[in-house]
Amino acid sequence: MADILTPALGESVTEATIAKWTKKVGDPVKKDELLVELETDKVSLEVVSPADGVLGDIKAAEGDTVTPGAVLGSVSEGGAAAPAKSAPAKDAPAKQAKPAAAASETVDINVPTMGESVAEGSMGKWLKKSGEAVKKDELLVEIETDKVAVEVSAPADGVLTIAADEGATVTPGQKIGSVAASGDASAAAPSAAAPAPAQAHAAAPANTGSAQVSGARNDTLSPAVQRVVAENNLDPKSIAATGPKGNITKADAIAAIGQSPTPAPAAAPAAPRADQPREERVKMTRLRQTIARRLKESQNTAAQLTTFNEVDMTNVMALRSQYKDAFEKRHGVKLGFMSFFTKAVIAALHEIPAVNAEIDGTDIIYKNHYDIGIAVGTEKGLVVPVLRDADTLNLAGIEKGIAALGKAARDGSLSLDQLQGGTFTITNGGTYGSLMSTPILNAPQSGILGMHNIVQRPMAINGEVKIRPMMYLALSYDHRIVDGKEAVTFLVRVKELLEDPQRALLDL
């Protein structure tokens, strides 16, 4: 066995990044054949094979940072690669050749395609360790990108070897591990079956009626589910699983929060902070880093300005109250306020097209389609899935579309296509009790409407003081493309359509 070592990088160079492996584990190699390319902040270096043989191990995956003298991998010396190339002897029965090949077969675990605009992701926590047995399609790890979390499952039954550790930056197609299939899996079977007594106890009949759920443990849950379980003190055994492979999804865990029995209150400690550090440093997730970067870029790029108005929600609330039961019975979805706001926004965008446009260099791109972004708060941060061609949908279609996008956002199952290409955004801070705010543009869009809390306030109506349900509206817009007159007109138009919903039906 010959180690592949990181060469000296130069007096002032202390580290390098693995740029590319030219061979995979199990591939035959020749002495002095190029195996891996390294990149430093000054030069690119090539590392060659130290001997003839088979590439037996890769310890530093593409994207990893290494230092001089670090072991990058190893080569099994000798003629180990010869049987793979040579044909079986004439006297050897064909039946004997297959088991040998199956026993040594490895299947790579590669980073899946994460979308056209996503070039990299960060490795989450592996749910299995190297050397443990895995089953085909069993969830192994989540890769977090700046938009969505991508699940990676085992490609085959066998024994896992991990090539990219938690926190490592990986790119689409990169190898992050492998599974030694077939015969090798049986070797790990005894160790995997060791905790049988505990599992047998967990499989006792439970209220959920699901044996798989009853045996669920924290180390078999995805990281997103683990966070919900830990933060809300849930028992995985009591959560009903609805995942496609019988696994507990994040939505299952969230749904179980209100159903979990409230634990008895513990005695308050004499000093609440006595066992906690004064400060805690936590690395930002990729999604949070992207949110921060994009919001700051939006502020730095656009000439942002916000105009306000208020809307009397009396008529919309009365209409909703009158028809909500019939609406839900007919369409199978509840009638909310978002569909009314979306319809009003689309009508206003028709009238003021600059708010539905964007700037590209010295050009203005006017959009003749209305793809409305709906801001959704999730555990990981704010995301804005897009309701496509919202102008072609009726109220029921809008409510169904928004409900589906919201569920996918909270489950972490949004696709990249659902997060791109919006022409205007609506955000509802009122769901959290916000009275007024100035929303930041979702670049490159030129407008965003902020909804807020509905509050009973005294209003002067025809010379009389009456209590009305009022909501403040805020329109943030890019003053480079939208003039103040257009912005105010847009917001007034939304106000009029909400205060008199029949106008939309009459196209007034």
UniProtKB/TrEMBL annotation:
Residues 80-103, 192-206, 265-274 have a biased composition (Low complexity). Pathway: Amino-acid degradation; L-lysine degradation via saccharopine pathway; glutaryl-CoA from L-lysine: step 6/6. InterPro entries: 2-oxoA_DH_lipoyl-BS, 2-oxoacid_dehydrogenase, 2-oxoacid_DH_actylTfrase, Biotin_lipoyl, CAT-like_dom_sf, E3-bd_dom_sf, PSBD, Single_hybrid_motif. Keywords: Acyltransferase, Lipoyl, Transferase, Tricarboxylic acid cycle. Residues 78-104, 192-217, 260-280 are annotated as: Disordered. It catalyses: N(6)-[(R)-dihydrolipoyl]-L-lysyl-[protein] + succinyl-CoA = N(6)-[(R)-S(8)-succinyldihydrolipoyl]-L-lysyl-[protein] + CoA. The keyword Acyltransferase applies. Coiled coil: none annotated. Its EC number is 2.3.1.61. One of its GO terms (molecular function) is dihydrolipoyllysine-residue succinyltransferase activity. Residues 1-76, 106-180 form the Lipoyl-binding domain. Its cofactor is (R)-lipoate. E2 component of the 2-oxoglutarate dehydrogenase (OGDH) complex which catalyzes the second step in the conversion of 2-oxoglutarate to succinyl-CoA and CO(2). Belongs to the 2-oxoacid dehydrogenase family. NCBIfam families: PRK05704.1, sucB. This is Dihydrolipoyllysine-residue succinyltransferase component of 2-oxoglutarate dehydrogenase complex. It comes from Brevundimonas albigilva. The lineage of its organism: Bacteria, Pseudomonadati, Pseudomonadota, Alphaproteobacteria, Caulobacterales. The gene is odhB.
